[in-house]
Amino acid sequence: ACGIEISQSHQIYVIVNICGEIVASERISKPFSDDREYINDVEKYREDFARRSGVDPQTVVGAGISVQGLINADQTSFSSHMLDNQRKIMIYPLTDKFPYIYLNDGTASCMSECYANQEERDFVYLMLSRTVGGAIVENGDIWQGVDSFAGEFGHMCIHPGDDKVCYCGGKGHAWCYLSSDRLEEICDRPYWNFFTQLEAGDPECRKFFDRFLDDLALLVYNVRMMHNSDVVLGGYLGTHLRPYLPDLEKRLQKLDHLYLESKTKVLIGQYDLEAAGVGAARYFIEQFIVSLS
Known about the structure:
Blueprint: E1 2-6, E2 10-16, E3 22-29, H1 36-52, E4 63-67, E5 70-71, E6 77-80, H2 81-84, E7 86-90, E8 100-104, H3 105-116, E9 123-128, E10 132-138, E11 141-143, H4 175-178, H5 180-187, H6 191-199, H7 203-227, E12 230-234, H8 235-238, H9 245-255, E13 266-268, H10 275-292
Parallel strand pairs: 1-4, 4-8, 9-12, 12-13
Antiparallel strand pairs: 1-2, 2-3, 5-6, 6-7, 9-10, 10-11
Helix pairs in contact: 3-10, 5-6, 6-7, 7-9
């Protein structure tokens, strides 16, 4: 199956085999555009990518498309302040050769974690990428809520008195402090360079990262208080945080004024850049496996 992540500035394509393994992946720069031509280009590139990867078109069981937005139940449109500052973006057909589905990026990323670690039945997935979001998993299934936007953790207000403005227009939201954009503002380079400078002892990066970990601890603590389950950190930034988990846990302990000494853990997700694409692709892999039983 194919997985496609669409963001404001780029696209990520992945091909996943029946075992859930990534056969090929590729990232390209491509500004988002809300029109038919953009989706036509996505399908052309997907076909070319699959051909170059040696995939037989007859073996493709579906394509999942991850977007930074909330998908309508009828799969005809989605809303996204991040992609085009519009409340409604039309969904254009991708192809008539096989089924396809549009998924929220946080939900798709969480699906990749559900499939990769099936022993973890109850957890909260916190996606830290250009957007901040995630999903809630109960007994192995993603709980989406009444209106299908459960897990929009990036829009939880963690600093009510702050003037930092979220892309949605609200102030003090977690996105303002925990997205990869914030790290790129500090080092004026792609976010992965921030961690290189941090490890090299850059004082400005260290100062910012202290605040970053404080804000992340606050968000994780609030999520723990609501759900009392493990929290998995994923997205672009998630895998970079593994060396800093002990520091994060110390900050969480300082916030625990009830002395709950929670048995829940903070874990790191198993996918980095491809998380949303893998989850979107595995949606169809799992459906195919079920159809064989």
